[in-house]
């Protein structure tokens, strides 16, 4: 199964539906599986006193509260409905992170294929319970959390009969330092909870995606922007169009390199097998009626005759016709 690649638009539309549509256009052309936004009502998720996270203030360089920042980035439900239709027309999956109950209801109503819950919601068991009762697939990022917290969230989901969940390992810092990526924690999640896992990549570059693909990620999401120099909290840690194309290519090439795990000769190997394998050949001229001994044979290319692995079978056999020195011995000769 191919990795499901999500271009995380997030709030990189800067509150503009026109920019959001341009992002959808580019994402569809890039060939990602889905583009994901963030659906929220600012008044329901942030106090007017909530300060920006460190990475937000560093990236925006604007002195304002988290509430003020989010309010500028908020899109209306009617705008999101328009974006969902726009994605459908572009044949790209529309996804969004739901941050409150009203947003959950809205996204379910417009027919999203899954609800994404961000890392900040792992301990928000009431929201998790609300989503799990909808009977819709859940994608849960697990940044900032430990196994115990993830287990509590899963217990809530399981208790409501929702078994379709993918856990995303993440490090909630934008960009994520390589030393804090710890991608093997994704495998820990899979081993501990026996669920599908993926990776929410906030690092710079493509290496993390290659590693996550190799370790069995079913979903990889990465922040995407039209221009990393735009104002906003996430642009600096996002890939532009050309960078994202390379990102996709790296993931798909990694999948090809991993292969299907079946150990057998490839088509190209079969075509050269006779040239590089060895056969049993005559060490000296052999006459009809000679009995083959170890001193009569050696092993040389090409591999068009009897393979060396069968040497013990031909020892003591009688030669049916004359064989010249260095001639490949075939089964019809003995």
Automatic annotation (TrEMBL):
Its GO biological process annotations read: carbohydrate biosynthetic process
Database matches in Pfam families: NeuB, SAF
EC numbers on record: 2.5.1.101
Give the EC class as a word: transferase
Q: Which UniProt keywords apply?
A: Transferase
One function term, GO molecular function aspect:
N-acylneuraminate-9-phosphate synthase activity
Q: Which InterPro entries match?
A: AFP_Neu5c_C_sf, Aldolase_TIM, NeuB/NeuA, PseI-like, PseI/NeuA/B-like_N, SAF, SAF_AFP_Neu5Ac, SAF_PseI/NeuA/NeuB
Q: In this protein, which residues make up the domain named AFP-like?
A: 279-334
Q: Which domain of life is it from?
A: Bacteria
Q: Does the keyword Ion transport apply?
A: no
**Gene3D superfamilies from the xrefs?**
Aldolase class I, Antifreeze-like/N-acetylneuraminic acid synthase C-terminal domain
Signal sequence extent: none
Q: Which PANTHER family does the record match to this protein?
A: N-ACETYLNEURAMINATE SYNTHASE (PTHR42966), SIALIC ACID SYNTHASE (PTHR42966:SF1)
For this entry, the protein name equals N,N'-diacetyllegionaminic acid synthase
Q: Which organism is it from?
A: Clostridium vincentii
